Structures are given as structure tokens and as C-alpha cells.
Amino acid sequence: MRIDVITVHPELLASPFSHSILKRARQKGLLEINLINLRDFAKNKHRTTDDYQYGGGAGMVMLCEPIANCLDHLLSERNYDEIIYMTPDGETLQQQTVNQLSLKQNIIILCGHYKGVDERIRQLYITKEISIGDYVLSGGELPAAVLIDAIGRLIPGVLNDETSALFDSFQDGLLSYPVYSRPEVFRGLKVPDVLLSGNEKLIREWRYEKALERTRARRPDLLKE
Ligand code: ADE
Q1: Which end of the chain is more exposed for a tag (fewer CB within 10 A), N or C?
Q2: Taking the domain 2-152, which CATH number applies?
Q3: pLDDT band at 17 (very low <50, low <70, confident <90, very high)
Q4: How far, in Å, is the centroid of ligand 1 from the Cα of 145?
């Protein structure tokens, strides 16, 4: 899978993809991430990518032309399955969307800043608008990193134990069950006996019950769906 990220702060995104699972995915050649500096597509002397908004009011708007230049350049080189814009007024990211995106070949992610991008870019190019939650961050870079992390770990071949992503919170509509490792007793708290029993059926049932219990207590809305 190839992901092209358009940003005015590529340096913000250097680290998140250089560690752990995403690093391995890139090393294995399963994921290619290209950071594109939007300023390289601004034609004027100062390489401006934003300006005041028509109608007045505080806050700059990201200009059409550099973004369109950049997108036209990418689109002339290959087909893209999605052109995603990270924005707090997009659809809230859900595991189901992440699952779908993990099966795509080529994706562009556009990171917004300030008041966002000129509406015409959204009308002309963007195929999907994604928010990572009901709060406003200072730019789309961290949201893009969140999205890419969520997608990257699902790309077939990335996780060593292929089944482990299947049991993540949300994959089956439930939160995860509690997990334990050594020691058996820690500050007086003991690992539940069933997990030490070696009885796979009982362990499976216990985990399902605990997942259900936790979901009922913390996210009853998931059970209604
Ligand atoms: N840009 C700023 N805040 C955001 C959010 N919550 N989700 C996606 N992009 C954003």
C-alpha cells in the first residue's frame, strides 16, 4: 500500500512511522509512506500556502492552487483509491472505515491547518473527510498519523500473529477483555484462576463474558448497535 501525505509540516510526521509496527511494515515493503511538502507546490516567491478568508474574520485558509498543483501532479502519476482530508468536521473515524482503507492500494491524505482548506478543493478532489474525534487539534498531521497507524497494522502480513488484530477492541463490536502476564500475584492482586487452568473453552468463555461486562459498563452504545 502506498500513502502520500500532503502537509506543510512534514517534519512532524517523521517519527511516528519510524518505530515499531509501522517501521517493520515499511521495511518489509508492505507500506510506503511519502511525505510531501505542500510548499514545494506553491509557485510564488514566498512559497505561500495560505491567505486571509473572503468575507473577513480571523484565521487563514489554505490556498487552492498549491494543493491543486500537488494533487494534479500525484494524479498524473497513478490512480488513487481515496483522497482523504483530515478535518474535525469529517466523519468520525471508526474501526470499520480503518478495515476498509487497509485493503486499498494508493491513498492520499491531505492535512489541513488554520481554518482549513478552500472549500473548492473539497468539492473538486476530496473523496473522504475524516475526523479523529470531537476536539480540535492545531493541524491534520497528528490525525493523519493516527489514521495511518490504525490502517498500517491491518495490512496483510504486517502483524506477526495474523489473528491478533481480530481480537482488538471494536473489531467484534466489543471492548477488549482484561489481560494479565507474570507474576501470578502482584501487590496482593491475583491473576484469575481460569487463565491458569489451561482449559481453552473456559478461558474463551471467561474472556467473552469480561468483554461483554466491560462494554456494558463503559460503552453501552456499542451493544445497542
Ligand atoms: N484537524 C484538527 N482537528 C482534527 C480532528 N479532530 N480530526 C481530524 N483532523 C483534525
Answers
A1: C
A2: 3.40.1280.10
A3: very high
A4: 11
pLDDT tens digits for range 166-215:
778 887 889 999 999 999 999 999 999 999 999 999 999 999 999 999 99
Please, what sign has the CA dihedral across residues 201, 205, 210, 211?
Answer: positive
Please work out whether the CB of residue 54 comes within 6 Å of at least one atom of ligand 1.
Answer: no
Give the residue, out of 13, 85, 87, with the most ligand 1 atoms within 8 A of its beta carbon, to mutate for a pocket test: 87
Mutate which of 5, 12, 62, 86 to test ligand 1's pocket (most atoms within 8 Å of Cβ)? 86
Which pLDDT tens digit goes with each residue over 63-85? 999 999 999 999 999 999 999 99
Give the C-alpha separation, 16 to 35, whole Å.
Answer: 12
Ligand 1 centre and the CA of 43: distance in Å? 27
